[in-house]
Structure formats: structure tokens, C-alpha cells
Recover the amino acids of this structure.
């Protein structure tokens, strides 16, 4: 339990006041007593001088009567003593019976200083006496002493009364000052309590509370200062919170992996994208453990040495995957660290850009190659025809046939390229409506009947009666099925090609199945990429452009559907398209 402050202070204060009052009382009464004795001594001296003028101890004889007479007039005990200490007369006793007075302190003192005084307690009477002695005669020829004595009872009594009065006054004073101090202490205690409560609420974070101190005079400034402090603290904290919120928003939403490392290369802050990008714990880890790449480490070293920003394109191996990044390192100085700088690191993932760039390069190379082959062929046959003329009509017709089929190839290539480009540029708008599958299948298959017959391949449609209409863009659906049936026939030399649809749990599954050459498993993941062919020569021989499945893939994706290719080499291929669940 915390001990109170005001209790002990009040006790000490009361003790101090009590002790000082006691001392004051003792001092005052002492001083007054001393003054009264001095005054009394002074008056005894005057009386003694007057007595000495009438009575000379040098005369000798019994002076008791004279002493009694004098006492009757002045009230003090009178004793006449000879120079050798013998009592010659005493107002209160018989001089003859009295002992020698030479050793009495007041007599001793008067021998030396002409007068002497002493205060002694009378055991007979039970109170103090003041004795005064005057040496008589001249300095050269002293004759004796006149001693006067008065009881100090009256003095003591009046001192006692004074003491009581002083004590009473002091006690009243003690109560008045004590009461006032107590009242002030209670007020002070209440104020300190208010300040304590206020500081406790500040410590609890209640920065909106305010301190109101009334009737506390100059202490009111404390309240003003504390309130100003609370307000400034509140503003500081809310601006800090705002800054933190902004920083949090930046770190959460910045699309790049951002790391902030301290002077000892430990990660202290990172963006949400950084956790996804590095896919491992980053909190308080050394960046050299997270990014284990010598080129990166050299870049970091250089930036820290030169203290200038550095930037480099790097290939990082993260979790077994290659990631192309542009790394930017910006050194900065933390307030607390002298010497080594801390750094902001930004990893911009350009893997996708790189892929796109590669795809674009491949695409240009593929298109050039695809176009160049038939053009070279056309040019070759045209040259031969021009050189040799048309003597051999049959050869000439055959050459012209080849020229025409090559120009057809260029034509279909350009058609497919235009389709792909319009699909990729988003100019093709998918307009879904309910499409009855029966009609679509019959019309697509109908276009290939002659080709199938020529190849000796049976071509049929299987539609289960329960298959409902699908929501699709009809023109696109026709294009999808045409490309799939075309492929099936191209890569099937015998057997059958079946196109159809069946209802499945999650919608309608459209399929085109053949008993053709099939696709080896390792090629399956890349089937549908532009110009990706399992057997380029065969594809070309069949008039393929290498873009049919890429177009199908685009259209399927544009509908929000899924495509799946199952194939066994030598046995055949089935391409399935899973359409939307029906509304
Ligand atoms: P292509 O014009 O070459 O047929 P596609 O994009 O239509 O181009 O097909 C890409 C490649 O996929 C083809 O070259 C072929 O190797 C393979 N392929 C497509 N469909 C089939 C299928 N039904 N049977 C076997 N291979 C196929």
C-alpha cells in the first residue's frame, strides 16, 4: 500500500510548531523572570545605599532592633554584617545566634565588586530568596556589609501566571495556525488528487480528458500547462497514427515487393506483396538469407559503399522458380545509426513482361516463318513456270495448283492471325444467348462431311436428349466446334470422329473425340499455345496454321468456360469444353 504524504507532513509540522511554542514559552518566562530579578536587585541596591547612610556596620554592637525597624518600613529582611563576617544585626532573627556570613556568595561578590547578589532556595520556607549585599565604608577602609533579602515567591507566582497566559495564548495560536494549515493541506491534497487522477487518465490513453482546478491561485497554471501538454500529445499521437496508417496502406497496397532493412541488413518492414513474392517469413530476417543471389549482394554492397541508389535487372531463383526482377536499392540514414546506412529495396517482378516479350518475339519469328514458307514455295514454282513456259501443260497445271494451295495457306494464316489479334485486342464482344446445340452441331459437322468421306473417316454427332440449350455467343461456338472437328479430322486417318454434348453436374460438357494419332503426354501442357505443334510438317501438310487451338482457347476463356484435352498417342484425342452451369 502506498503511504500518504500529507499525514506524515502534518505530524512533523505539528511537532515542529509544538516544540517551537514550548521553547518560546520557556524563553519568554525566563527573560521576564530575569528582568524582574534585575529590577528587584536595582531597588534593593538603592535601599541598601540609603540604609548605609544611616547605619554603619563599623560601629559594632547589636543592631537587631535597628534592622527590625528598617524592615518594618521597607519590607525586606535586613542583615548587618561586620567586615570579618560576624552578623551584627538581623531583622528576622537574633544576630548573636547566627553563624559567620563571610562565605555567603553575595558577600564574597561585594568584597570584590562593591555589591553582590544571589538567588537561593530556602529549604525552611520552601521558596527562592534574592539576597543583595552592599559593602560599606570606603575602598581603602571597608567597614562591613549591609545585606537585604526578599522572597521571590511573588516573582515566581507572577511568572507562573505569565507562563499560563503565554501558554494559553500559544495554544490558541497553535489551534488557529494548525486549523488553517489543515485546511490548506486538505485543499492541496484535493488538488494533488485531481492532478493525479488526470495524469492517470492520460497514462491510460484518455487524451481527451481535461483538468479543471478552481480557486487554486497560481497553481491554476499547472492545469493550463497539463491541458496544453495533453492536447499536444493527442495531436502528436493522432498525426503519428495517421502516418502509420498511411505507411500501412502503402505497404499493403504497393504492387511491388518492398523491403526496408536496417544498417545490419535485417528486414524491419515489408510490403504485403513482398510476403507473397518471397513466400517465406521475412520478420527480422537478414535479407542476405532471403535473397541468396551474389549479384544482388554485390549490388547491395555497392549501394551501401557509394551511398547512392543502385538499380539492376536480375534473375532470382525463388522456391525453384525463376523470377525476373528489377531491383532498386536506395540507401538512407536512420536517426539512431551512425555509420552504415539502412536501405529501401524494391523488387519489381518483370517475369510476366519478359514472358510476353519472349512470346512477342517468338510470335513475330513464327509468323515470318509461316508466311515465308508458302511465299518461297510460290516464288519457286512461279520462277520455274516463267523459265520453262507452259510446254508441259500438266506440270504447269500441277505447279499452279501448288501455288494456289500455298496462297490458300497464306490466306487462312492471315484469317487466323486477324481472328487472334481481334480476340487479343478485345474487339470481339461475346454476346451470350440461349443456343440450341442440335442445330449448331449439325451445321458444323455438315461442313466436314465431304472431307470425312474423302478420308474414309466416319463422322457423327451424339447429343443426349436431356442436353439443354447453352448460354453462348453462337458465332463463336460455331468457330470453336469447327476448329475442333477440323483438327480431329486432320489428325485421324481411320476410325471415327464424334462430336457431341452431355449434361454434367456443373453444366454441359461439349466434346469432340477422335481415334487419330493422339498427342504425347509431354506436349499436352503446351497444346493451345500459338504455333505450338506436335508435328509441324504434318500440320502444314494438312493445311494447319498452328493457331486453331489458340483461337479455341481464347474463345473458351472469353465465355468463362474451361477446356480440357485428354489424349493417348495412337489411340485418339478428346477435347472437352465445360460450359457454364445453366441459369
Ligand atoms: P494446327 O493448325 O497445326 O492443327 P492447332 O492449333 O489446331 O494447329 O493445333 C495445334 C497442334 O495440336 C497441332 O499441330 C497438333 O499437333 C495438335 N493437335 C490438335 N488437335 C489434335 C487432335 N485432334 N489429334 C492430334 N493432335 C492434335
Amino acid at each position: 500500500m502506498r503511504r500518504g504524504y500529507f499525514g506524515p507532513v502534518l505530524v512533523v509540522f505539528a511537532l515542529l510548531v509544538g516544540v517551537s511554542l514550548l521553547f518560546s514559552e520557556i524563553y519568554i518566562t525566563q527573560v521576564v523572570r530575569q528582568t524582574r530579578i534585575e529590577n528587584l536587585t536595582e531597588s534593593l541596591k538603592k535601599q541598601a545605599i540609603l540604609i548605609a547612610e544611616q547605619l554603619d556596620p563599623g560601629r559594632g554592637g547589636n543592631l537587631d532592633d535597628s534592622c527590625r525597624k528598617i524592615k518594618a518600613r521597607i519590607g525586606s529582611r535586613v542583615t548587618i554584617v561586620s567586615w570579618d563576617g560576624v552578623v551584627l544585626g538581623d531583622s528576622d532573627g537574633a544576630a548573636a545566634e547566627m553563624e559567620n556570613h563571610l562565605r555567603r556568595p553575595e558577600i564574597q561578590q561585594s568584597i570584590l565588586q562593591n555589591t553582590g547578589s544571589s538567588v537561593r532556595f530556602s529549604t525552611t520556607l520552601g521558596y527562592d530568596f534574592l539576597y543583595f549585599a552592599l559593602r560599606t565604608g570606603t575602598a581603602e577602609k571597608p567597614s562591613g556589609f549591609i545585606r537585604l533579602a526578599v522572597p521571590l515567591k511573588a516573582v515566581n507566582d507572577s511568572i507562573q501566571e505569565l507562563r499560563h497566559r503565554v501558554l494559553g495564548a500559544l495554544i490558541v495560536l497553535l489551534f488557529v495556525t494548525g486549523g488553517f494549515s489543515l485546511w490548506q493541506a486538505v485543499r492541496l491534497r484535493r488538488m494533488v488528487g485531481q492532478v493525479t487522477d488526470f495524469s492517470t487518465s492520460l497514462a491510460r490513453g484518455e487524451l481527451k480528458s481535461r483538468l479543471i482546478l478552481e480557486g487554486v491561485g497560481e497553481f491554476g497554471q499547472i492545469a493550463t500547462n497539463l491541458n496544453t501538454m495533453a492536447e499536444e500529445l493527442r495531436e502528436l499521437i493522432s498525426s503519428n497514427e495517421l502516418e502509420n496508417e498511411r505507411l500501412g496502406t502503402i505497404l499493403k497496397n504497393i504492387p511491388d515487393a518492398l523491403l526496408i532493412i536496417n544498417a545490419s541488413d535485417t528486414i524491419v518492414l515489408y510490403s504485403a506483396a513482398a510476403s507473397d513474392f518471397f513466400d517465406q517469413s521475412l520478420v527480422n530476417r537478414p535479407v542476405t538469407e532471403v535473397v541468396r543471389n551474389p549479384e544482388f549482394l554485390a549490388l547491395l554492397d555497392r549501394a551501401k559503399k557509394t551511398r547512392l541508389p543502385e538499380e539492376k535487372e536480375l534473375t532470382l531463383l525463388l522456391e525453384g522458380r525463376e523470377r525476373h526482377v528489377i531491383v532498386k536499392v536506395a540507401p538512407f540514414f536512420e536517426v539512431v545509426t551512425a555509420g552504415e546506412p539502412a536501405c529501401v529495396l524494391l523488387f519489381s517482378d518483370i517475369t510476366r513482361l519478359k514472358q510476353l516479350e519472349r512470346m512477342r518475339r517468338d510470335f513475330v519469328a513464327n509468323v515470318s516463318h509461316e508466311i515465308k514458307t508458302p511465299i518461297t514455295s510460290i516464288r519457286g514454282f512461279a520462277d520455274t513456270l516463267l523459265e520453262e513456259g507452259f510446254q508441259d501443260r500438266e506440270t504447269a497445271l500441277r505447279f499452279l495448283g501448288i501455288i494456289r494451295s500455298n496462297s490458300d495457306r497464306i490466306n487462312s494464316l492471315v484469317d487466323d492471325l486477324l481472328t487472334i489479334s481481334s480476340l487479343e485486342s478485345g474487339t470481339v464482344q461475346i454476346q451470350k444467348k440461349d443456343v440450341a446445340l442440335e442445330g449448331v452441331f449439325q451445321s458444323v459437322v455438315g461442313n466436314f462431311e465431304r472431307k470425312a468421306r474423302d478420308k474414309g473417316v466416319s463422322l457423327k454427332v451424339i447429343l443426349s436428349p436431356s442436353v439443354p440449350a447453352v448460354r453462348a455467343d453462337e458465332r463463336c461456338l460455331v468457330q470453336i466446334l469447327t476448329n475442333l472437328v477440323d483438327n480431329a479430322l486432320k489428325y485421324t486417318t481411320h476410325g471415327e470422329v464424334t462430336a457431341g454434348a452431355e449434361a454434367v453436374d456443373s453444366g454441359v460438357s461439349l466434346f469432340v473425340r477422335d481415334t487419330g494419332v493422339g498427342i504425347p503426354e509431354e506436349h499436352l501442357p503446351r497444346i493451345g499455345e500459338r504455333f505450338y505443334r506436335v508435328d509441324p510438317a504434318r500440320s502444314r501438310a494438312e493445311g494447319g496454321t498452328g493457331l486453331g487451338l489458340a483461337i479455341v482457347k481464347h474463345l473458351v476463356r472469353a465465355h468463362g468456360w474451361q477446356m480440357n484435352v485428354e489424349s493417348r498417342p495412337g489411340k485418339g484425342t478428346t477435347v472437352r469444353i465445360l460450359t457454364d452451369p445453366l441459369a
Q: What stands out?
A: The longest helix spans residues 153-203.
